[in-house]
């Protein structure tokens, strides 16, 4: 029962942040189309537009349209109450220990890595890696902006996920 309550708390945080819908979104994507999308994707951060080619046709979208298609509230993400993680300094390494199990629990831990992370930070890191942040790199490490995302989710702060996706 305790683990169900713990997960409910985390789901509630994602809902408050406006991220629950995108995390629940599942689609049977065509792998060839996805590869072509990434191979042809162009992003203009200044104009908040993206364009890509599927087949022989080029498509255009604004960041707001992209957000809507992914069940995100772009106005909420751009509001003053929302944080753009890309503009922040990386979370200070001295803040990492709060995300790990205490030493007296006896669980091996490696600061900067995934071993020994507490439940919520571990789940948040996994969710970010498979949804709105890139999956490349060492899976055994918590990398740069992931720390900031973990911290903001733990504190219930809204973040601009579109900026992360576009980055």
Secondary-structure topology with pairs:
Elements: H1 2-16, H2 20-24, H3 31-40, E1 42-44, E2 49-54, E3 57-62, H4 63-69, H5 74-78, E4 82-83, H6 119-130, H7 144-155, E5 158-159, H8 161-166
Parallel strand pairs: 4-5
Antiparallel strand pairs: 1-2, 2-3
Describe the 3D structure:
The protein is of the alpha+beta class and 167 residues long. The chain has a domain at 2-19 and 83-166. Helices cover 43% and strands 11% of the residues. The protein has helices spanning 2-16, 20-24, 31-40, 63-69, 74-78, 119-130, 144-155, 161-166; strands at residues 42-44, 49-54, 57-62, 82-83, 158-159. It has a three-stranded antiparallel beta sheet with strand order 1-2-3. A two-stranded parallel sheet has the order 4-5. Helix 6 packs across helix 7 (144-155). The longest helix is centred in the N-terminal third of the chain and has 15 residues, at 2-16.
Biggest β-sheet strands, sense, barrel: 3 strands, antiparallel
Average residue-wise pLDDT: 87
Order of helices and strands: HHHEEEHHEHHEH
What's the end-to-end separation, in Å? Answer: 39 Å
Count of DSSP H/I helices: 8
Strand order of the largest sheet: 1-2-3
Uncertain regions: pLDDT < 50 for 5+ in a row?
none
Number of extended strands: 5
> Helix amount, in percent?
40-55%
Please state the overall shape, judged from the principal axes of the Cα atoms.
Answer: globular
The secondary structure category is: alpha+beta
Q: What fraction of residues sit in β-strands?
A: 5-15%
Radius of gyration from CA coordinates: 17 Å
């Amino acid at each position: 029962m305790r683990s169900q309550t713990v997960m409910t708390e985390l789901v509630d945080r994602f809902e408050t942040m406006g991220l629950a819908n995108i995390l629940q979104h599942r689609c049977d994507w065509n792998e060839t189309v996805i590869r072509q999308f990434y191979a042809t994707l162009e992003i203009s951060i200044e104009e908040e537009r993206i364009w890509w080619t599927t087949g022989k046709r080029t498509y255009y979208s604004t960041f707001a349209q992209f957000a809507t298609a992914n069940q995100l509230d772009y106005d909420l993400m751009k509001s003053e109450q929302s944080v753009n993680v890309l503009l922040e300094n990386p979370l200070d390494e001295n803040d990492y220990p709060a995300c790990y199990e205490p030493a007296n629990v006896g669980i091996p831990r490696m600061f900067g890595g995934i071993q020994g992370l507490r439940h919520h930070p571990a789940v948040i890191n996994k969710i970010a890696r498979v949804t709105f942040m890139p999956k490349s790199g060492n899976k055994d490490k918590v990398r740069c902006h992931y720390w900031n995302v973990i911290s903001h989710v733990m504190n219930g702060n809204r973040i601009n996920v579109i900026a992360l996706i576009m980055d």
